[in-house]
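> run fold Branched-chain amino acid transport system substrate-binding protein
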Amino acid sequence: MKKLVAAISALASMAGGAHADITIAHVYGKTGPFEAYAKQSHDGLMLGLEYATGGTMQIDGEKIVVIEKDTQLKPELGKALLAEAYGDDGADIAVGPVSSGVALAMLPVAEEYEKILLVEPAVADSITGENWNRYIFRTARNSSQDAVANAIAIGGPNVRVATLAQDYAFGRDGVAAFKEALATTGAQVVHEEYVPTDATDFTAAAERIFNAMKDVEGEKKLFIIWAGGGNPMGKINAMDPGRYGIEIATGGNILAALKAYKDMPGMEGATYYYYEIPRNPVNDWLVKTHFERFGTPPDFFTAGGMAAGIAIVEAIRKAGSTETEALIAAMEGMEFQTPKGRMVFRPEDHQALQSMYHFRTEIQEGKDYGVPVLVRELGIEDLPIPIRNGR
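> ok
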């Protein structure tokens, strides 16, 4: 029945003539702990559509209409809202969500309605791995891209690592991928800690980590995988892990979270984006426009949202249609330019391959956060990202 509704909606759109609207549904967690991520993602999406259409917000004469739906970070709600977007609103393509847990609930809906879901910014490997279907594409980086890049940045034969992560798909997929990537460098993970997503007290977890690491020989690091509030890095750093020879390491994050990095100058890791790192025309436009519009630099997820917007425009132009099979054919292997430079949708799992950035934290005058300064760009060819969907 739902497929019939979708088909009728498509026919109605065709009957409307050549200048029917192109409807994009942004289904994402506008409210809740990831609200800051959501706003960045939406701002970036709109900027990406604007940039790719030269400010017209049209593709081949057809007007782009963006509708928003708030998942409130609830998987069942996200699932229902995506079905509503495809079935009732006639969305040609959907973008979102913020949370990996919500994304996993939404994947089967895209398959049921035979419509594309462009995942941005949810990260869990299982989205383009074991739970993937052919209607799923992702501009966001996945857990393996984070993991491989960070393993290159901090790994080595004498390195011993403990991990702290949130106890859901993002955290567990992230640690699994990180362990796999670290093994190729000769490093070893000696302890893992998982805590609730809304944890604010890390005392017990930190003590278990310290006890597990204090007698370990080698270069000891605590690697933290975290999204949202709670500030585990700052709180654990205040407990003086250095007395056990433990250094904290982590990947990149939004500007607000980088304030905790200021207490750890010299810390290394790998990041998805920081506005001063990429040097290309798309990022130049994004930085200039964002300062003009909002008075602030673009943030972590603004870049991802912009990549999604650009990808949609390029795909519809290439396909010459919003018909799903034409879009899939156009998007598999499609290369497009983003604020991070070149991305390409890998045909096997529709994951966007992209650069990551090995950074070292630096204190800079006039900035109230630790600045991730580029050590080395890790290009697509430097990042052996596994295919996990068995295709």
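Residues 337 and 343 are 6 Å apart (CA to CA).
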